[in-house]
Amino acid sequence: MPLGEKDCLASYKVLVVGETSVGKTALINNLVGREFRESMVPTIGVDFVKKIFEVDGALIQLVIWDTAGQERFRSITKYQYRGVQGIVLVYDVTNFESFSHLTYWISSIQYEVAHSHCGRGRYEPIPIILCGNKCDMVEKRQVKSCKGYKLAEKEMAFEFFETSAKTGTNVFQSFQRLAFHVTDIHNPKLMKSYHPYMIRCYDDTETTEELRSQVKLRRSAPKKDKIAPKERGKCVKLKRSLCCGCFR
Ligand code: GDP
Q1: Global pTM?
Q2: Ligand 1 nearest-atom number relative to CA 22
Q3: What is the mean pLDDT of the chain?
Q4: What's the CA-to-centroid distance between 26 and ligand 1, angstroms?
Q5: DSSP character at residue 17
Q6: What domains can you pick out in the chain, each with its CATH number?
Q7: Which atom, in ligand 1's list, is nearest to the CA of 20?
Q8: SS3 assignment, position 222
Q9: 10 pairs with which residues across the strands?
């Protein structure tokens, strides 16, 4: 039987946002193994997909909402932001305008998330993974990698990747890292070692009983390699340099 919701220790809602036609739907399709489509017809987002990741020996589920179709009317509302725990913010490296509109997106995320938390007494940071998509279109590039990286640092996005929904470059990694950060913020007790590589992503089809027991085994392994809080700073830096290196 494939892994399902009941195998997961936590489930998190994440949104994929950005300008029209930057490739939000294409990224989600690539993540869940759907075929890439060249068609230029703007997509209307199909609600959400679910994807299971193993973060540090714990199975967690991301419920990934596609906002494609609504962004044209700036109609991603408080309702959609409600309960959101992570964001993948996408621009198109072949379209400078989609990059220059990122500040709008970041402030609207901050505004909506802050308001949707109002009155709940607790405010957690919302991890944003910034993705410069369509990096396969080398000749049409309008936004240099370093610009994306600098913006990610300035606006405190947790990580930055250049992705291609066409070739699959860094698509898994982007969502994996989001799964890692969301778990770190909302369920730190699930984190055992904070090792940046202790993270996997599963296809619904490839999961078996054997895999399930392997996960259990990893989860019950002694915590001897847990990284001390002091060392975690180094780990974060390592993550930064890792993601920085991804697009080179
Ligand atoms: P959305 O409106 O942000 O959801 O964008 P779509 O996913 O509908 O993609 C818009 C167009 O860009 C489509 O024609 C896709 O085929 C194309 N596209 C999306 N991602 C990529 C990519 O990584 N590389 C290339 N070459 N084209 C892409």
Answers
A1: 0.80
A2: 3
A3: 76
A4: 5
A5: E
A6: 5-190 (3.40.50.300)
A7: 2
A8: coil
A9: 60
